[in-house]
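[worker-b] picked up task from shared queue
[worker-b] task type: protein-ligand structure
[worker-b] ligand name resolved to zinc ion; SMILES cross-checked against name lookup, match
[worker-b] sequence length check passed
[worker-b] input payload:
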Amino acid sequence: MRYLKILSVVLLVVIVAIVAYLVIGFKMFSAVDKSIEPDCALNNYYSKTYNEARERFVEKAFSLSEKYSGVEIDKFSVPSKTDSLLFVDICYIPAQGVNAKLLILTSGIHGVEGFAGSAVQLLFADRFMAERMFDSVGVLLIHALNPYGFKYCRKATENNVDLNRNCMVNTELFNTKNNGFEMLYNLLTPAGKVDVMSLKNQLFPVIAIKSIVTHGMPVLRQAALQGQYYFPEGIYYGGKKYEPQIDSVRQILERVVGIYDTVLNIDLHTGYGEWGRMHLFVNPIGDSVVEAGLKRVFAGETIDWGSGTDFYTINGAYVDMISAMFGGAVVLPMFFEFGTMNSSTTFGSLRSIHTMILENQGFKNGCKSEKDKANVECNMNKLYNPESAAWQSETLRDADKMFDKVFDNFIR
Ligand SMILES: [Zn+2]
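[worker-b] inference finished, payload out:
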């Protein structure tokens, strides 16, 4: 009897210790590396707002039109219930010689990730297109594909659609069922207003770990992130039809891409992977010519081919839609992902998903107080648009190096 008593006390102490470790570790987690020296010249490519980023992009496009012939500068508006000044801006620089190859560089498909994406586009236009000569390669720059999210610190659109789950190759796939998401619905879609300090939110790591132990991390990650088409109020909702900007961008792509034999299609993102590092990844590739092409362009670099332990595949990816649209050409899809939260660690990945859940809950139901609202926005920025000068420099250093490689192996 006495032993049983001691055993229960020990068990209780162990449980309390685990819960305390999870709650405190989760709360205190930070991926920031403070030892890195920022580079002001690079950080200058970052804009403070969507409007500023837009202005600078258009200005750079006009300056490129003085150097290259036939440059097309265009824009289309994205309809909104609240804002009539949301635009996707386009700059197309046709190949100056033979129409052989095209580079597509897209930013802000996940709105708030557009700060980094826009900076990368400016860097590319400034340090590569303006300083060097592009002879036989056309360039299509698409700026802020989700301007609402860019302007209002959201990843999804005003209609709560994740554009990178919305680009279905076959539109019948908008009825795809994600049973895993349904299973996790209550965890991923809490009811009521956001109350950051609520017991449920404080205990989020404990509740989530319980689900991880029950189902396994790969199952959970896949269920939450692959995209879902049945719950418009939930995260990673892919919609039931193309969002207006996907319809518009498809028309531009139809007109521009078809004349090229080979296309390198780079989509710029933040939030996945190691803090301050740029990662190359793709959805699993089934075509050996495309795989060989990517290996040639990114020779010597680590590409995540979608087979790692912390990887997940997604439905409705924008780059995959473009590959499917131009079956006759060799289209090389690639995500440039700038890591922020060390998402391969347990705390990093829990913080990422919790941030997404609360932002979505706040957008849908509102926040209990201004403090809760500020907290949600602050965490969104930490996850997708870090203000750390060191992070901004590190990511652009990596992008600069990668474009050097792209220039040598694809453009020149
Ligand atoms: Zn993204």
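[worker-b] attaching auto-annotations
[worker-b] Residues 2-28 form the longest helix (27 residues).
[worker-b] releasing lock
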